[in-house]
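User
Here is a favour to ask of a fellow structure person. I am asking you to supply a protein in sequence and structure-token form. Please set it down just below, with no commentary around it:

Assistant
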Amino acid sequence: MNLDQIGKEGNLGYVVFISAVAALGGFLFGYDTAVISGTITMVASQFELDSVLQGWYVSSALIGSIGGVLVAGYISDLIGRKKAMLISSVFFFVSAVGCALATDMLQLVLFRICGGIGIGMISIISPMYISEIAFAKYRGAMVTLYQLAITVGFLAAYLVNFELLDFSDSVGQLEGSQWNKLLVEEVWRGMLGMEAFPALLFLLMVFLLPESPRWLFFRGDENKSTMVLGKIYSSPAKIQEEVHEMKLSLGEADKGNWRLLLRPNFLKAILIGAAVAILGQFMGVNAVLYYGPTIFEQSGMSGGDALFYQVFVGGVNVLTTILALYIIDKVGRKKLVYFGVTGMILTLLLISGYFVKASEWNIPSYVLLILFLAYVFFTAISISAVIFVLLSEMYPTKIRGMAMSIAGFSLWTGTFIVGQLTPWLLEVLSPQGTFVLFAVMCFPYMYIIWKLVPETTGKTLEEIERFWEQ
């Protein structure tokens, strides 16, 4: 199916629009995840945190994320994808305002957990929603819009951190004690609080979205499902084809039954998805995103230079994800993983070598930046672009919400462990040992993708479902 054919059968512009709105949740995910990197040193100094408590500050939001993913599938299956996205946007907004105004470390952690719930929920619901409304041939690109929004959120957080720190260093004092506290004396509050603006925008934009036609059909409302499909597809024949596919995939007695998860064919898909989700967190990407400025500082840079370099990391992340968006449905999911993970292994080993020989060989700090940028390129074009696409499309509709919650739980559990352990690993194993460990963890990930995961490129969700049922 080419673009001309899609133009005759479907409304591509409308699908791109609603996918982009749903992907705004990814922006909040990215901002909330990355903004923490620029606040660690300041918060640790103000509240006198040791390395263990620093890890807790970083990973506290991940506790909320784990809770969020555990309920996201159930809530989205119960009340719909759209209402679940609205709930997540409220969590983001409350977290941003609460962190900016927190009076002590306990409040700060609690509001970070609140934001984490929003992250966990949206990490499941947005890609699932997009996969359920997108054309099969371009589903990879549409879901990758969500990953692109995450990387833009990362970059926005890095830029906000850098600009606010520069502003606080140069402006002196502001009129009004509260503004002075937010933007000068304790600028980390402003960094965390800026998220309130995109959170409010997302809350308003979600009202423009239709409900997922597959969820509506799953809940027995075929008429509303057909109406939504009528906005997506202009061809009556195509609408009837989609309805027929959904009828084939949904058994009347099987709706939302947890026992379905224990069917051998479905259980296999769930375990594979969970393994891919958790292993991907032990390959270094979150250490770079959370602790990039800290790692740069350990190489001898100033705090300002470290944040500036992190902006470059965010920029490469965004540009590479744009490239992935264009090629993921042409090259295929698995080939991108093979290429990217191979590059990740090489760059992780080179980063380790930098920390071993930098002082002895007088290697300039920009070499570390180049290696980090190369690593981010290989990560963004492979596992980061592919993971949410795979998880959103590999499960049957009747268990998709519950199965994605399980995979999301695995993903955020791995992220929590990495966030908690990275300061300790950097301290005990040193940076060089830590990056060697990350390189080693790439091998089991590659094996699972190679041997156990089917290529899903170009297939409808119902065709993928039939693969697991064989």
